[in-house]
Amino acid sequence: GDLSPVTVIGLGPMGRAMATSLLRAGHPVTVWNRTARRADDLVADGATLAPTPAAAVAASELTILSLTDYQAMYDILGPVAESSGPSGVPDGSGVLDGRVLVNLSSDTPDASRHAAAWAAGHGATFVTGGVMVPAPAVGGPGAYVFYSGPHAVFDVHEPMLRLIGEPRYLGEDPGLAQLFYQAHLDVFLTALSSLLHATALVTAAGVPAADFLPGALTTLTTIPAMIGDGADLARRLEAGEHPGDLSTAQMMGATADHIVWTSEKAGIDTRLPKAVRAHYDKAITAGRGTENWTVLYETLKAGD
Ligand code: NDP
Fold first, then answer.
1. pLDDT tens column, 4-25
2. Intervals of CATH 1.10.1040.10 along the chain
3. Does domain 180-300 have CATH number 1.20.272.10?
């Protein structure tokens, strides 16, 4: 077909799902992975396994990276970038020159910014991304991906990137995609830990997990109803409005105490509830205990 070729480097569960979506849409897909056998199923589905990272990058204008972290990219592409042209002979023009790298691996915003500068130093354009769904959901309904980096380059490749998930472009600063990724995962991981901690609290008392977990999930889904929409909370946080007429940090802090004490009595891990209690203590110590629980935002903005 006349669809543009694309290269995928990194064939963990995510990279394999991405390559599969691109193949299904009819793109010629070249893949490379440190452990070559992870490419077997993709090759059976029509992908081309490149013999080297240099050959993989040379095969397409666009290379998608799906690796554990950004260090893996330097491990794979560092030697390629420094050494030679596509011929393998050092000729002053590295294989990254003129290429577009889209790194969908997780790391810090600073790692993304550093990598964008590194890529630019080798003549490549760097787009950063964070995939917000697990591998089985890649390319399906509800999949979305945060992107940041050069807008014009992103726009050119947006139709292809859409095959991975709905693209959400955040801005030119290469750190933005990972900033949003980490912020969402902050909510996600904390909620997951709280679910498991709370289940341990209940089962320590001899209550089956099945008696508790469905209700716990309901509690998670009632948070939006309590908060209202995010735009309203954002407005109040930015305005510094924390009226304590319905509930206060003092009251919520007392509840946080009760969770710590119940956990201690149950003999289970207390670190998560102690961290939550510390957030309330900080606001109360700052003299803001009679304001709404959202006042935690004010004291959380300051470092430890
Ligand atoms: P995996 O850890 O399963 O795969 C990592 C890939 O990186 C493999 O191809 C691995 O190669 C390669 N790799 C790691 N270190 C090196 C290295 N030093 N040199 C060469 N290759 C290396 O990750 P996933 O596919 O699960 O995830 C990829 C990225 O997507 C991660 O950043 C993850 O945080 C993110 N993500 C994952 C989600 C998930 O549900 N799994 C959801 C959303 C984002 P090899 O096969 O040889 O080990």
1. 999 999 999 999 999 999 999 9
2. 180-300
3. no
Q: Strand 48-49 to strand 29-32: parallel, antiparallel, or no bridges (unpaired)? A: parallel
Angular region, 178: left φ>0, alpha ψ -120 to 50, beta rest: alpha
Q: Measured over all CA atoms, what is the biggest interatomic distance in the chain, rounded to whole angstroms?
A: 73
CATH level 3 topology of 6-172: Rossmann fold (3.40.50)
Report the residue among 14, 37, 69 best suited for mutation to probe ligand 1: largest number of ligand atoms under 8 A from its CB: 14
Taking residue 63's Cβ as centre, other Cβ atoms within 10 Å add up to: 25
Per residue in 251-277, pLDDT (tens digit) is 999 999 999 999 999 999 999 999 999
User: Residues enclosing ligand 1, CB less than 6 A?
Assistant: 10-15, 33-35, 38, 66-68, 72, 75-76, 105-106, 131, 134-135
